[in-house]
Amino acid sequence: MTTNLLVAGVKQSSPQKPPPQGGSLLAYFFLALLMISPLSLYPLLRGTNDSQIGIPHHKPSPLTPDQHLVFGCLGIFPGQGFPGTIPWEPFRKIGQQESRIMEELAEHDPVEFLQRCLNRVDQETHSYRCIFEKRERVNGRLRQKETIRLHFRNSPFSVHMEWLKGYDLLGARRTIYVEGENDGLLIVRALDATIGPIKELAINDSQVKATSRFPITESGMQKGARATLDSMRIAWETQTLFISYEGIVRVKEVGDRLCYKLIRSPQVPPEEDGVNELIVYIDLETHLQVGSVLLDAKGALIAEYYFRDIDINPTIKADQFTRKAL
């Protein structure tokens, strides 16, 4: 009874309205949309830069060509998942370690250093084309510098030379030699690079010997490296090898490439033509002997040879070492 009285004595409030329906819900939706609409202007207020308004840019890849190569190799390993991250530091350390090993050999065992370089070149380099520059003292006279476009193939031993600068007025403009072909003769186009006469000359012809210290059969980077190694090995075995390793240097004459530099001096006894000092440059990356300088006891130039712009194992035209290429 009491309870009923208390309830009866309470002032009743107005009844609750039912939940909005129909058109009322639509009104609430438009109200909310109106409240957030200023956010749509935010990108415009930040400026008109493409990157700021969400237009993607195709940025250049941060990977070096070597890193792309490593990715490619890892991606094709059978049965291996492609890694999300690559620890590049170990790859860099491997390269540094190889360079340190080669430097230590060059300093403490130069014969073994040159042997390893030649082994790698023999294994990896089967042909090349490059610009070959030389200057030689022949028959007591220092000739002018010659610039030659050189094509070379190991097997069969094949050489194609085209003189760009420094050719004799009546000398060769283009020359080919292929071991086992053309009766062992040089095929030479003289006077003019396109319409001059074609001659066949023996390797030991007086005209040929008057233009170079070595026959064409001894040309090429590998032949030069082997001659350097053989000479040093003989001196090493007779304890007459005096050689110093000068470190890694950048050599302008071979296209500003980094090279190991060695100096052999004095040569006891002096070698052919009175060579008393030999400076050798071995390319840091390819291990090719790309430069050599020969001096006499007074420091006068006997010969210098440089190879630059080297394209290793290129596609060679079928007629590159034939008469058609003359």
Describe the structure in your own words.
The structure is a single chain. Strands 1, 2, 3, 4, 5, 6, 7, 8, 9, 10, 11 and 12 form a 12-stranded antiparallel sheet that branches. The protein contains 8 helices and 12 strands. The chain has a domain at 101-325: Lipoprotein localisation LolA/LolB/LppX (outer membrane lipoprotein receptor (LolB), chain A, Clam). The chain is an alpha+beta fold and 326 residues long. A hairpin with a 5-residue loop joins strand 11 and strand 12 (301-312). Helix content is 29%, strand content 27%. The N and C termini lie far apart (130 Å).
Write the layout of secondary structure elements.
Layout: H1 2-9, H2 23-36, H3 42-45, H4 65-75, H5 88-108, H6 110-124, E1 127-138, E2 141-142, E3 146-153, E4 158-165, E5 172-178, E6 186-190, E7 198-201, H7 206-209, H8 221-237, E8 243-251, E9 257-264, E10 277-283, E11 289-295, E12 301-312
Antiparallel strand pairs: 1-2, 1-3, 1-12, 3-4, 4-5, 5-6, 6-7, 8-9, 9-10, 10-11, 11-12
Helix pairs in contact: 5-6, 6-8
Tell me the series of helices and strands, N- to C-terminal: HHHHHHEEEEEEEHHEEEEE
User: So, CATH architecture of the domain at 101-325?
Assistant: Clam
What gyration radius follows from the Cα positions, in whole Å? 38 Å
Give the termini separation. 130 Å
Overall residue-averaged pLDDT value: 80
The backbone outline, from C-alpha atoms, is globular
Supply the helix-strand structural class: alpha+beta
CATH class category of the domain at 101-325:
Mainly Beta
What name is given to the CATH topology of the domain at 101-325? outer membrane lipoprotein receptor (LolB), chain A
Total number of helices: 8
Helix content: 25-40%
CATH 4th-level superfamily of the domain at 101-325? Lipoprotein localisation LolA/LolB/LppX
Uncertain residue ranges: 1-20, 42-61, 74-82
